[in-house]
Task: structure prediction
Amino acid sequence: MAREPERSTATRRNFMIVSGAAGVTMLAGCTSGSGNNTNNSGDGAASNGGSVSTLSGAGSSFVNPLMQKWGTEYNKKAGVEVNYRSIGSGGGVSNLMDKTVAFAGSDAPLQKAQYQQVQSDGGAVHVPESLGAIAPVFNVKGVSDLKMTGEVLADIFLGDVTKWNDSAIADLNPDASLPDAEITVAHRADASGTTYGFTGYLSQVSDAWKSQVGQTETPDWPTGVGGKGNEGVSSVMVKQENAVGYVELTYAKQSDLDIFKLKNRAGKFVEATPEGVSAAAAGAAKDLPKGDADWSDVSISNAPGEKTWPISTFTYVIMYKDFGKAYDDSSNERMKATLDFVQWAITDGQQYAPPLHYPELPDSAASLDKQTLQNMTFNGDPVL
Amino acid sequence: MSGTTESTSNRGLVANSRRTRLWSRAFRGLTALAGLVILGIMVVILAALFVRAMPAIEAFGANFLWTTKWNSGGQFGAAPFIAGTLLSSAMALLLSVPVSIGIAILLTQYADGAIREVLVFAVELVAGIPSVIYGLWGLLFFSPIVDTYVVPAINASPLGALPIFGEQAYSYNILLASLVLALMVTPIISSFSRESLVRVPREQRDAGIALGLTRWEVITGVVIPYARAGIISAIILGLGRAIGETMAVTMLIGNKPVLTFDFFEPGATMSSLLANEFNQSSNVLHNSALFEVGLVLFLVAFVVNSIARLIIQRISHEGSR
Amino acid sequence: MALESTGRHRYRKVKANVMVGLTVVALVLALIPLGAVLYLIASKGLAALSWDFLTTLPQAPMAGEGGGGVRNAIVGTVWVVVIASGFSIPIGVLAGIYLNEFGDNRLGQAVRFTTEVLSGLPSIIAGVVVYSIVVVAMGDVTAFAGGVALSLLAIPWITVATQDALDLVPQANRDASLALGVSRTETILFVVLPSAFGGVITGTMLAVARVAGETAPLIWTVGFSKFAFHGPFSQTATLSILIYNYATSPYEAWHQVAWGAAVLLVGLILVTNVVARTLWALRRRKMEGRG
Result:
């Protein structure tokens, strides 16, 4: 059969060009890798004895700004890439249970049932690596300074107070010109440690909230719209007028959101600041349990003190206590790399916290953490 | 002729050797294997969804489909998402079908030559833009426009009195998602409709013109009825696409897993639920319920697409008679 | 005949013209948003493009850094698309050959029907299924898993495109070859396929371009990374996931980057579409010229 070669050669040529370009890009991508010897079989598990250059973590969006900063700085220092995905505390713990990450970030400690569950894998440890303020925020045109109490906040989130000019809010703020508008409640759509802390506080200050909803990462929200992660709620708050929500302090600052002045346990209306969180942690920090114990009762919420910020929380790195028992790792390389990172985070890493509106870890928590890390083992042998 | 035979025999293409026959059989087997792979994919998808959904299926039974509570007190129900999928798809079709058919008519009955090529290309381009970019555009550009112009317009008009348009307007809602969805399914409905309209024999149209009908009357009275089945299948295919659409909807619908029939409220679809919540929970039942929603989504898309394809098959069989 | 002067006729004519006008309105309604999208992508996206943008890694504005670049996302997208092509092109082309050349039987009917239905597979389902099998088995999200998920979408498209391209080759060509004693396989490989090659390439390029823009299958299979690409068996950034993450974030710096990535993605798809369709048009013209 006679065929004209030019046409198919032309298409073939184009195909070659495209695949050649793709090939070059791929090669460029390969060689522009981090330069360390990389281990490509999964999550940096060092099955061939090479050193680990990638660590996988996931969870809390509460601590994500700090985690990202740590990732950048630790990479400069140690050459290790810490890949942390901000998917919410619930997602982080879920990934940890699925063993698809080396560590989980969570603002909520493991619940008793989860704590029991990990015992069969050698147990897990809580390492509070940071702490922060949960800030109730609002977006009302023309108003940037409002006082609030826990009970009224609970009523708003319960859907019992529905308008901005409701007497409950107006009485607290007689000088503010509150609009006659519906309040749009913004909350988390995903399983959230921030929610755990926020609902924990609401349960403490409002019997109505405690009986109707309670403290949980995934409440049955009586009203409102959901955002994914602290990032999602921030987006909603920025966009939606007459909205009320709760985000970690860094997000409120970075998105320029107005924060309520909240009445704390001592009766003072305080602003959300890192100092307020440090004050909240001051008392509790001495009574923290051992690293591998059950942390489900730990709380620095609604703490006593004149300057305390009432909605404060630790945020934890949760890891399996013994990577050898929990994972398929053939050597302790990955565990060592993980512990090195966490150790750095609770010591040198703390300097990056204040610029991002997180307080530094109290000394007692830091030394407890160091002890916890020292006690972690790989198949029974100490790692650090 | 003889030159050709020589060249073919020089290239050894004559199939009188066992080796050639063997290669032939092997090649045919290979292609059949590829076909089997496709069947296998279908089976694997169904099996994977089914197996993972089993715990939820056993726990909730058929009630799953109309339980309206999602992740509440251990209960999981798909009703909010099935409703969200249906509402957004229905609204998208309502808006898109007249536009799509209008475009199809314009491009097959009126436009011609280079202009038609360009316009066809332009409409196809709408389909070529990835869904996530429509989401980006919707989030950062279109949403404020809807808030400022469309929502007040609806509220001011008699439509505002309908129960499907409530009071409270949240920026990310079912309406916004439906509008963008309508835009996205228009190329599909339009291009399949175009194919059907083009197939209408000239004689039919000429007969209409000979009877003194205006061009438009020829279209509505002769061409469209003739192409009816194809247009219907085009619409159903558009529905199928709308049902499966994920990214733009996820980014614009507000993601509230609560049953609602109010287009101004945020909602969720089956696909947006999976895009948002999948594998975030350590609750086995929760994850299983998500797989069950995936199974329902897959089956619904399967049925809708099958209906459309069956209609198309029937038309092409009739056509070749 | 006095038909034209009757009122009714004038009404019908006016109505006809009005209706044509309405179809034009319909076209405009569809094209205005397209124009808006393209304009925004062009203006905001091109503003974000720069050499730095293309060669640096993502940064974290929440950590006080800038918006960053998309270097690893470009590489990641290429890899994921290549992996997907590696699976879907052989399977799709071979299956298309089967359907058109050998498919006149029950198996062919089943495959044909399944292919058409699978081409409407919701993209999120591809990701969910591949997660439950590949990601769980491999213990981590990887570019490889993402490629597999994308290929689930691309296989039906390429199969249909191949089938259509082969269908266009006149039966006479096949018959002539077979009459000369050439085996069926060699007929397909050396007679039919070369003629259909342009159509197959076109369909494949369109499918690959479409797959490059897909996001849903990648969410749970590839994850995301702000670090350089590490090979197909690790997490990686991709342009589509980057756009998704950044667009839904509250950081203005990331919104700019998202527009930039959108320009790259749409540019790639646009160019591929134009090239593929021009090839197709040239080929059609050549074929019509011959016939």
